[in-house]
User: Which sequence fits this backbone?
């Protein structure tokens, strides 16, 4: 009996020691890997080209996924079949909102709809710009599941195209085309 207790104690103690091991050459990006992005994870990037009655380019990378000057985040809500991606220059710069619908989350096209979530918008108070979408297509080209606890989180790569107009008479019309990589996207189906 004493031998069994001693062996049990040694076994449990060895499990404890093994779980506390700090492997400094672990590149997984987990707790022992430091604060860097996990292996295979790259920084979120976004690029948009604005053409038409105005021209501009928006392009940024979020180093180490820490939003300081820009933010980009997306979500898909299955109850209304709506994908939204929101891009902002912090603290109070431009805002670009993409919207599209599709019956389930996954790779493919999400099409803006007047009956659904709309078409998105582009606002830039510094430039006195306020445009509402008249069409929007967001294409998710690939996703990587990051975690699936309570609500799934993905990193998504894709592209988009949208047409917008302002309230001028006649309205100014612009088109925005762009790409995004490794953006955080939460999914609640």
Assistant:
């Amino acid at each position: 009996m004493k031998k069994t207790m001693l062996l049990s104690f040694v076994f449990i103690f060895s499990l404890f020691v093994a779980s506390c091991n700090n492997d400094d050459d672990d590149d997984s990006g987990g707790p022992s890997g430091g604060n860097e992005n996990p292996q295979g994870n790259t920084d979120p990037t976004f690029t948009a080209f604005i053409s038409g009655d105005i021209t501009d380019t928006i392009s940024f990378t979020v180093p180490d996924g820490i939003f300081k000057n820009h933010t980009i985040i997306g979500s898909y809500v299955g109850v209304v079949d709506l994908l939204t991606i929101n891009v902002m220059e912090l603290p109070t710069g431009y805002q670009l909102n993409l919207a599209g619908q599709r019956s389930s989350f996954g790779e493919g096209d999400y099409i803006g709809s007047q009956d659904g979530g709309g078409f998105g918008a582009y606002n830039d108070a510094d430039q006195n710009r306020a445009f509402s979408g008249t069409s929007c297509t967001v294409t998710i080209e690939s996703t990587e599941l990051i975690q699936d606890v309570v609500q799934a989180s993905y990193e998504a790569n894709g592209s988009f195209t949208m047409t917008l107009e302002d309230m001028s008479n006649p309205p100014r019309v612009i088109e925005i085309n762009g790409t995004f990589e490794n953006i955080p996207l939460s999914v609640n189906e």
Summary: The beta strands are 45-52, 56-61, 70-77, 82-89, 95-101, 108-111, 121-124, 129-149, 151-165, 173-188. The first strand starts at residue 45 and ends at 52. The chain has one domain: 45-188. Residues 2-19 form the longest helix (18 residues).
